Amino acid sequence: MTELRIEDIRIELTKNPKEKIDDDKLGFGQQFSDHMFIMDWSVEKGWYDPRIVEYGPIEFYPALNCIHYGQSIFEGMKAYIANGEAVLFRPLDNFKRLNNSADRMDLPHLDEKFALGALKKLLKIDKEWIPKSEGTSLYIRPFMFGTEQTLGVNSNKNVRFMIILSPSGSYFKEGLQPNKIYVEDHYVRAVRGGMGFAKTAGNYACALKGQKKAAECGYSQTLWLDAIEQKYIEEVGAMNIFFKINGKFITPELNGSILPGITRDSIIKLIGSLGEEIEERKISLEEIYNAYDNGELEEIFGTGTAAVIAPVGELFDGKKKVVVNNFETGEWSKKIYEELIGIQLGKKEDKFNWIVKIED
Ligand SMILES: *Cc1c(COP(=O)(O)O)cnc(C)c1O
User: Fold this and answer.
1) CA of residue 349 to ligand 1 center, whole Å
2) What local confidence, expressed as pLDDT, does residue 170 receive?
3) Which of 95, 140, 259 to mutate to test the pocket of ligand 1 (most atoms within 8 A of CB)?
4) I need a surface site. Which of 73, 143, 156, 181 has the fewest CB within 10 A?
5) Could you identify the atom of ligand 1 that is nearest to the CA of residue 235?
6) Tens-place pLDDT, residues 256-312
7) Which of 93, 208, 239 to mutate for ligand 1's pocket (most ligand atoms within 8 Å of CB)?
8) Ligand 1, atom nearest to 93 Cα
9) Are 191 and 230 in contact (CB under 8 A)?
């Protein structure tokens, strides 16, 4: 198997470039740029035929194994304009995590540096698709799935990796707003030894019913508890979660069933660098209720690439209601948001070397 080089990427530019969308009309994940990256893998050849082609339909036979058995993993990151330049935030960490997800699904590894090189090449071609207004970005979706035609359940002999790009609007058009979160005590998302740490399609498929239930009760997200005792807090929808109790930050430790968010990791490092105490450990719902009853629960916020920080204003488990900080965005939610956004936009020193320029 020969090692792939960036020069080997075949490029077929579109003959029909699409109209760009005005920044203020952008939603999330609805529109796509002109091009996409594709490469395929087989047991015999390894990764082969890397190519950048027009964004469009892909064709497979109905026995495509990932449709039947769910070998499908993905990543989510953003390209955006900072000080006039197109940049990415910790992109190699996304490709590392994709490889960890691949491990769990018995899918092949990517060469992380090659994947980043391919992404940069695609972004240079579709650079005009990166929206420029503050808060907007070009959402990047790398993904990998089994492409063997078989109803047999076995390790994949054929796999595809792709990257598509979707211009996205500002997540918080009116600034940080507190969210209402429903504590789910019936359904569970992931169990230790399962695949909760992997960014895989199945974790979302099994979360939809809980999400719907929360929405029907007027809540925007689900808070997942551990699958064994349904006692310990795991994470929120597609975000990790942080608590501030009696002056100290606490976030659930990575236990195999929680997704290791890159925003989570960045915020742990940021909080530490600001001289604050942060604990990664098990935290029970009961501990949160007790802290609330004692007046020690100061803030709760979710963290993830899309929103960066999502303040939590209310928790409800069907019985007990916890209103956090009078349903106002907390001081630290704002501060951490501004620190991280400041680094991302090049307004604050990038002391951890998180920013990667597309042109480098
Ligand atoms: C992607 C994701 C997150 C957040 O990860 P980031 O790297 O911070 O974007 C959290 N939870 C789940 C379930 C996710 O899929």
Assistant:
1) 25
2) 81
3) 259
4) 143
5) 11
6) 999 999 999 999 999 999 999 999 999 999 999 999 999 999 999 999 998 899 999
7) 239
8) 7
9) no
Confidence class for position 35, pLDDT limits 50, 70, 90: very high
**What would the pLDDT profile of 40-87 be if each residue is shown by its tens digit?**
999 999 999 999 999 999 999 999 999 999 999 999 999 999 999 999
Structure tokens at 43: 């047991």
Ligand 1 pocket, 91 CB below 6 A? Answer: no
235 lines ligand 1 (CB under 6 A): yes
